[in-house]
């Protein structure tokens, strides 16, 4: 090991179970950056238990702020313990002031973390907090913290482990409750320590569970049981659901350790849950999840790798992040049983690799052939654009361009845009908007006005369950000579730095000749849509010039059709070259 590399690294874990699971890929990434270093984690008791036996860690140190480390004397004692370990680098995934202060008090010479919570003074290497208009997922938030240290690429899926002994112990416990090792288990986690606003109705959870159990027993000839999970204080909630089920069930609310919870979740065929820590535990084990979201931001905390697990109602007041709803709890009460049931069916089918497993009829699967065809199309699309980035102009491409839009009331999307973007997203593409907004420099709008407009864009896309990965804008006047105003490539270069993308696998869709010029400068394939400043006749005249786009489309829907077909042809050509030149 080089003398300048850290030899002993302290990782300060987040305090919540869900956050800690979403941080796990970054722990893997830190291990890959410093494979010879001794890696220790400092965590509160529940999170420490979660990471016991993690292959990337040499040790887990417990920070018990309610007992041994309570108060000023406890913090001093903890700092002394850390000082004796002689760490030379602290990586702080927890954002709090206290995390930085304690490592400073412990005399750790390098203290690395996001510049949050007024703690910059105690960090030797503060990292600027991402401040884009579209927030990233928490997995990526933690992962991106390490990029200044040299971490590259995208975050892997979270991963957790339980031992064979832990699995056997849980199996014995379930057998004592009448659930055999061969039985299928449907898990329900109906509570939330965050507050009642995150809770879907227990009656509706019970109804979905009854229907899923009945279908599994009919179609797989399996014995099915329901296990109800939860924290201390949620026992009555679990008992209420069990009383409504009428079949075999066991209530483990408040009756498991973290390690036992992990082993039980791993046994589940499906976990139905609110936005909670066990939701992320299940995803880390590859267990299919149905996650009901209300007041929290699903974009940043959905089960990573299971985007289709989300069930939510797009209401104007969500996400509000409140613990208790001050009005009518519409974000949850408007979510019907049928929608959660349908998502559960799809999650089970998707995980089993089958289609039509339950033989559903009626409104859920009124035309099984059409549904199967759609599923096949989506599965095919998913293979096409993985690793590709699609850069999108905004005004004239996504929305009509009446001039300088300075209010959300002025902003509406073209028909078909959410559906086209959803199709590209399902195909695996990263979607990034790059837009010139000289109206800021000209005084027609403020950055706050622009942010409000982009929040309207977010809400419109939320209704179609599609999200943009990022939005970059140039606020400068055309006469400023900046390098970010299109057709200059400054916004693209910033995206490359932040996302680590390959521009050889990129497309750009826009309505202006400068968009096509930018595509040529970065080596991207281009589509010119005639929904903005250029008429179809003017666009066709470009075909004989150096500014010819790769395709001309009359709408974003048509652009998406061509792009998917073009990417498919490209993948075929790549495979053919690989066969010809192995």
Please describe what this structure looks like.
The protein has 582 residues and is of the alpha/beta class. The protein folds into three domains: 8-149, 3-Layer(aba) Sandwich (Rossmann fold); 164-366, Rossmann fold, CATH 3.40.50.2000; 383-580, HAD superfamily/HAD-like (Rossmann fold, 3-Layer(aba) Sandwich), CATH 3.40.50.1000. 41% of the residues lie in helices and 14% in strands. The protein is built from 21 helices and 18 strands. The chain has helices at residues 17-33, 45-50, 71-85, 97-105, 138-145, 164-176, 202-219, 235-245, 258-267, 277-284, 298-301, 330-333, 337-352, 368-384, 417-426, 439-442, 447-462, 490-499, 513-522, 536-541, 556-580, and strands at residues 8-12, 38-43, 59-62, 89-92, 111-114, 125-127, 184-189, 224-228, 249-251, 270-274, 289-293, 310-312, 389-392, 430-436, 470-474, 506-510, 525-529, 551-553. It has a six-stranded parallel sheet with strand order 3-2-1-4-5-6. Strands 9-8-7-10-11-12 form a six-stranded parallel sheet, sandwiched between helices. Strands 15-14-13-16-17-18 form a six-stranded parallel sheet, sandwiched between helices. The longest helix is centred in the last third of the chain and has 25 residues, at 556-580. The chain is globular, with a radius of gyration of 26 Å. The protein starts with 7 loop residues before the first strand and ends with a helix. Residues 354-382 and 572-579 have low confidence and may be disordered.
